[in-house]
Amino acid sequence: xxxxxxxxxxxxxxxxxxxxxxKDLAKSWFRWWYANEIPHSFDRxxxxxxxxxxxxxxxxxxxxxxxxKEAYERHAQFYNTQAIWGGGTILGITISLEEARAKExxxxxxxxxxxESGIINATKVGLMGPLAGIGDxxxxxxxxxxxxxxxxxxxQAGNGLGALIPWVAFVALTYTYxxxxxxxxxxxxxxxxxxIVGGRNxxxxxxxxxxxxxxxxxxxxxxxxKVESGLKWNISGKEFVLQKIFDQILPGLLPLLTVLGxxxxxxxKGLKITQALIGMSVILGVLAGVGIL
Length: 293
Prior knowledge:
mainly alpha; two-stranded antiparallel sheet; 73% helix
């Protein structure tokens, strides 16, 4: 270090970062949860939401204006992930990485021009896709429909709470375990991903939700898919009703076959919902027209 650099450091010392508390994590999490889809743009996607969530933490970490500016620019780059599993975990990991970098800059063990800042951004980009896939499958594909299935009878009975409670419960539930992911990411850093993807407890939760979701879909299919046959005939003066025969063999057989048919179509043709609805309406309409259904 030259004499001039020593004088600069003495006259303009780098202020050490403040400690990041659970309160700070909660504030950042609320900001991210609240605004993750508000400033959506094609060039940056939801990066402004992440930056807004990180701003209170970054101000506590970087007292040097230049370092703070670099951090802002770092997190204004393209970013997009699922709000809870991806957003919560990556938010916690990012805070952990920024905290480590701020401490290293303060004690002089890190080069301000090093590639560490690029590693922070690369970590975000590398994790946002895989974690988003997990989050979409569990939150939107499982938890949401379990709650709807539980309270659907209330809505059908005309109780307005049947439409309100699933939404409130979904928000409260995802917000709670999303904040857990933030704290987990902050505590473990990059290792949090292994805990989420490969951890035994998380795997048990995912498996349990998957099994419960399958049961709830079966209950919904049996209770709310109404397909019955009106076909009947007489033999030697005795009337035979096809629907009664089906009910004696396996109650709910036709609804089950209908659901399995739709599932088979989706597995072969992809999730083409509009085409499936049109095709199913045509097929059921023809069968009803000829008296089979």
